[in-house]
Design a protein that fits this description.
This protein is α+β, with helices and mostly antiparallel strands. Helices cover 43% and strands 13% of the residues.
Length: 233
C-alpha cells in the first residue's frame, strides 16, 4: 500500500480477491499449499529454533478492501518467551524478514508475500485473519466502508520522519532501538482501536515502511549492533 492510496476511500469489493479465494471463501488449495511451503522456507531461513503455533494470513487480501498494490501478509505465530537469543525477538525477526525480502521476490499470482514472525501474546489486530495451517477463518471480515483523516496522517508521518532522522543522526544504538520500538508500539496501539488497519497509526507505519524510512532505521540498528559486538583495528 502506497501513500497515494490514503487520499481516497479504500474500495470495497463484493467478494474476496478471486486470485486467492474460492467461492466458499476458503483459500484456493494450490494457494494454501504454496503459502505453507513459503512459511517453511522462511522458518529455515531465520535459522533460529522456535515453536510455530499457527500460520496465518492477514491484511487487505483477507478483506474486501484489497487493491492492486496490496501484498499478502503471512505470519508465523510463536511464543517469544520460548526464544533465547542476544537480541530482542521482534528486532531479530524483523531483520531476518527484511533480509529475506531483499534476497527473494516471492509472489502468489503476482501478489507480493510479506513474512512475519509474531508473538502469540501480541498478535496484530486485523479485520480478517485466516489460519493457513488449519484452513479456517479465525476472524471473518465484514463489508465496511472506511475513511481517514489525511491531514492527521501527513502530520504524524512528518513527526515520525523527524524522530527517525534524529535517531539515525545520533548513530547511537540505544536511541535507534528505542525509536524503532516506540514506532512499533505506536502502530500496535492503533491496531487495537476500532479503526484497526485504518487507524492513523497503522497507515502512518505503512507509509514509513513503503518509503524506506523504516528500513533505514532497521538497517541502522543492525549495523550498530554489529559494531557493538566487534573490535575495530
Amino acid at each position: 500500500m502506497f501513500f497515494e492510496e490514503f487520499k481516497t476511500l479504500v474500495p470495497t469489493h463484493p467478494q474476496l480477491n478471486p486470485l486467492l479465494w474460492a467461492e466458499d471463501d476458503h483459500l484456493r488449495p494450490e494457494v494454501r499449499q504454496q503459502l505453507l511451503r513459503i512459511a517453511k522456507d522462511f522458518y529455515r531461513y531465520v535459522d533460529v529454533e522456535f515453536p510455530v503455533l499457527d500460520i496465518v494470513i492477514t491484511g487487505s487480501n483477507c478483506n474486501y478492501n484489497y487493491t492492486k498494490a496490496s501484498d499478502l501478509d503471512l505470519h508465523l505465530i510463536t511464543d517469544y518467551k520460548e526464544l533465547k537469543c542476544d537480541r530482542e525477538a521482534e528486532e531479530l525477526f524483523d531483520s531476518k524478514r527484511l533480509l529475506y525480502e531483499r534476497e527473494y521476490d516471492i509472489r502468489i499470482r503476482n501478489i507480493p508475500v510479506t513474512l512475519y514472525v509474531e508473538d502469540r501474546l501480541n498478535q496484530r489486530v486485523s479485520a480478517g485473519v485466516y489460519s493457513v495451517q488449519s484452513d479456517q477463518w479465525l476472524e471473518r471480515p465484514q463489508h465496511i466502508q472506511r475513511s481517514f483523516d489525511l491531514a492527521k496522517i501527513e502530520k504524524q508521518i512528518s513527526m515520525w520522519r523527524k524522530l527517525i532522522k534524529r535517531a539515525t543522526t545520533s548513530q547511537d544504538l540505544t536511541t535507534a532501538r528505542k525509536t524503532l520500538k516506540l514506532l512499533r508500539t505506536y502502530r500496535k496501539e492503533g491496531l487495537k482501536t476500532p479503526q484497526g488497519e485504518f487507524s492513523t497509526a497503522n497507515l502512518v507505519y505503512k507509509a514509513l515502511r513503503n518509503d524506506t524510512t523504516l528500513a533505514q532505521l532497521s538497517d541502522l540498528v543492525d549495523r550498530l549492533h554489529s559494531q557493538d559486538l566487534s573490535i575495530r583495528n
